[in-house]
Amino acid sequence: VPGRPDPSVPPSGVSCSGCGAELQCRDDAAPGFVPAEKYRSLSEGPSGAMGLRAAVCQRCWLLARHGRALRLQLPPEQHRRVVSAALRRPPRHGRGPLLLYILDVMELPDPVLAELPGLLAPDVPVAGLLVVGNKVDLLPAHSPGHLGRLRQRVAEACARAGLRGAPLVDVRLVSAKTGFGLEGLVSRLQRSWRCAGDVYLLGATNSGKSTLFNALLRSDYCKSRAPDVVNRATVSSWPGTTLNLLKFPIINPTCDRIFRREERLKEEATKTEDELSSEEKKYLNHLKKQGYLVGEVGRTFQRPKSSTVVEFDPDELSYSMDEDPSHSPKKREEREEFTYNEVKDARWCFDTPGIVKENCVLNLLTEKEIKLVLPTQAIIPRTFILKPGMVLVLAALGRVDYLEGEKPAWFSVMASNLLPVYISTLSKVDAVYEKHASQELLKVPMGGEERMKEFPPLVPQDITLKGVGTTEAVADIKLSSAGWVAVTAHAEDKLLLRAYTPEGTALVVREPPLLPYISTIRGARIPGTAAYRTKKPPSVVENLKTTGKR
């Protein structure tokens, strides 16, 4: 990576607008690094260090422009310290903050939720806790009422976590990426919390906090000028992208503003897809390819855009036919700032660093491997029927052996569509794994024999289950963050399974399963194989009037 440090230059005191780290050019392995040449060009102008206000660090620049991640010398506990220090601040405006805890519904039971009380100070009151189950767009509507069941699973996870010191206000399901449920979340916040105090977005790494922060920044939840002043947070699949606090000011939801907002939502709810513009249809179709649940996030309170002023420079035209035109040096765009009166009594929405999950398989993977493991599009379930003695292998990251049972059982894989699934037998699977791990057949990890020398071995855990019927899964076998396998068996049939995950990662048996009827959306059996054909179920669009067409 180009760019040299200069240890003689002191830190700037200005935060990176993408991750929140303090911008500096002293250490290229520390957060907030900007190459010394770029740092000087931005900070040595008439504005001094304030010239860095719109800049991002080299790490954010590489993530946003090239999808590359730089490893930082940053211990995992550093993220906890930043979050804990923010939550232990004395209450502003005489009231404690509202905690907006974002969890990835696919990661239930959330490994960080139970740690939340330990981050709070006993003498600093918290006004409430609103839990947001994110990434519901990735899961298919496998049966009627599936969102209600998902919401119940999230509520049960909160109860098991034994949260204390922060009363649970509500549980919401959203997709920060496709916009599903976000208008409802904004309405809930404005009606119950209004503008009573600050709001903190909390959660584990890769839960979608920064994506939600960016979506709220372009919604009715922030001041109308905020999108022009506050830069969007850097978003990537690399765990721990946000390193410090980012924030935007919350709009005061007066009665007039709530009325105008409700009128906009009512008007939009009368539209059909046919009435959308070509650009809106194109964007909607793009979102439908990304997820099963899609919503539109609009803005009621927008500052009218000023007309563009074209500066006329006669010197641009004063050249002869045999000369090239000379271009005047471009003026640096003036960055908009909030006025003192706009923010003197403001309540703020803060994006905080994600809490690093322990015993997570993502901590063992490279940047390229993470992009294959983390699903970014709607997951298409892959169902297989296995007899005792058969084995299901998910990449080289996990496997499930069917050791004993009276009848065949169905195993439905919910994982990134890019991860391969291989079906083998107990007598052959070890040889297959040894030969193809880190090769094209199993794909992840990648890098050949040298990569597998440093990768931990798979370790087993025996699991006993009793079937509840051929249409309902009895449990999910969650292979750390690589995905899970829903097991469906005949009623009263006892199954002995042996599941494997890399040493040092968590294997969880999730009962009841997250999507109990997932095996029922399988298609026809593929002749000569254990697999079923599965078509992607249709997407559902929120906030649009249905036309009767599917």
TrEMBL record:
Q: What name appears for this protein in its UniProt entry?
A: NOA1 protein
* Basic and acidic residues: bias regions: 324-336
Q: Name one GO molecular function term.
A: GTP binding
Q: Which residues form a coiled coil?
A: 255-282
> Out of the domains of life, which is the source?
Eukaryota
Q: Where is this region: Disordered?
A: 317-336
Q: Which gene encodes it?
A: Noa1
Is this entry keyworded Coiled coil?
A: yes
Q: What are the NOA1/YqeH-like C-terminal domain coordinates in residue numbering? A: 411-511
Pinpoint the G domain residues: 199-249
Taxonomy, top ranks, is: Eukaryota, Metazoa, Chordata, Craniata, Vertebrata
